[in-house]
Amino acid sequence: MGRPGGNRSFCIEGAPPWRQGARRLTDQRVRRPTVDGILRLLDRSSIVWLARRREPRGREHWPLAVFEAGLLFPQHVREGRAQRSLALIAGMSSLLGGAEVAYEHYRGSYGQRIMYTPIALSALACGASWWGVRDRTVARTLMPAMSALLIADGVVGFVFHVRGVARKPGGWRIPAVNVTTGPPLFAPLLLGIGGYLGIIAAFMRRADDPGDRSFPRRFRPRWRWSNDVREGKFQKHMAGATSFAALLSGFEALYSHYKNNFRYKVQWTPIVTAPLLAASALWAVKSRRAARTALPATALLAAANGAIGFLYHARGVKRRPGGLGRLGYNILYGPPIFAPLLFSAAGFLGLLASVMRREKRA
After folding, report:
1. In a domain, 79, yes or no
2. Predicted confidence band of residue 198 (pLDDT cuts 50, 70, 90)
């Protein structure tokens, strides 16, 4: 084997399988020596050493492979080759949204049969997305179908929640009371974030695609924006979706925390962060510079704020009578434990938009 000094490539003879395929997954714009140095450092760590001892020979070392996939994820998004990673994230978002709906509808005693549909569809969308991580055909057929059904169910749920507010005493004549004490108005639309990510993932390519692989003939799209997604040129549309999700999440946090009379000052943070994210996302639709500066900053702030809110809600569940000993009961009747993570999902959409390329001009 020759000296590696003349070749800055990451793929060298005798390297493990996950390294041999690394160069095929990206182009020369990624600083491979930097990635190589980080992975070599992790390669000597005890956790990777223990994981390697448990794996049969010939298998890839999954801790390092997952870590490298995380490092290359922004580059794959820019090139439109992040189908597997985005499908995994879409499945997780659908799962969290379905869990949130499950106990919210349990409080309503499932008074109508249609209240079961978002739970079933979120589970189907989650399963199809995670199946799409393994199967290329499923990612381009079943996953977008289930994701579209989940979005449609969210729109139907929004109509039912509007009707529920109207049926309360006073109806829409006293919205300040009936919106805060009635069904969560915009929660069904937030359930569609997982479906939206699933549809976007379906139009993307996989990291190991040798070229421009097309859809099966029956499912081949004929829209211009689908080709933009496959090339990673979807920034303005994703920024618009980020603004929409941020406004909905902020409004949900507003009347949810209003019920608690804003007992803690930290409850004001999502109310402030959501308009900032929405404004920066709208600005990013018009300005390329804003998409590279203001949008990632506010999106990261929103994602962190949602994670902190999840910790506060988990602490609120633990502090209820019985604590962890009555975990199921306290999750059902305590603060909505997964709701802050849906706010983080809006921030994640902003981060996706910030690393994408701009659409082609008409």
Report:
1. no
2. very high
Question: Is the distance from CB of 195 to CB of 147 less than 8 angstroms?
Answer: yes
Local structure of 180: helix, strand or coil:
helix
Pull the structure tokens for residue 301. 């702030």
Q: Among 66-80, 93-107, 165-179, 238-252, which stretch is predicted with the lowest mean pLDDT?
A: 66-80
As for how many domains the chain has, the answer is 2
Residue-number span of the structural domain to which 199 is assigned: 85-204
Q: Are residues 196 and 265 in the same domain?
A: no
pLDDT at 2 over 50: no
Closest CA to 247 of 268, 266, 273: 273
Q: What is the per-residue pLDDT for 269?
A: 95
- Mean pLDDT within 46-61: 50
Report yes or no: 237 and 359 within 8 Å, Cβ to Cβ.
Answer: yes
Q: In terms of domains, do 234 and 157 share one?
A: no
Q: For 214, which DSSP code?
A: P
pLDDT at 6 over 70: no
Same domain, 176 and 268: no
Work out the average pLDDT over 160-168.
93
Q: Which residues pair with 357 in a beta bridge?
A: 233
Residue 233, beta-bridge partner list: 357
299 assigned to some structural domain:
yes
272-307 b/e (C-beta count within 10 Å ≥ 16 → b): ebbebbbbbbbbbbeeeebbeebbbebbbbbbebbe
Is position 6 within any domain? Answer: no
**107 domain residue, yes or no:** yes
Same domain for 150 and 90 = yes
Q: Are residues 285 and 161 in the same domain?
A: no
- 20-29, 82-91, 239-248: which range is least confident on average? 20-29
Neighbouring residues of 94: CB distance < 8 A, sequence distance ≥ 6: 122, 123, 125, 126, 129, 147, 150, 191, 194, 195, 198
Judgement on whether residues 110 and 166 belong to the same structural domain of the protein: yes
pTM for the model stands at: 0.77
Q: Is the same domain home to 309 and 235?
A: yes
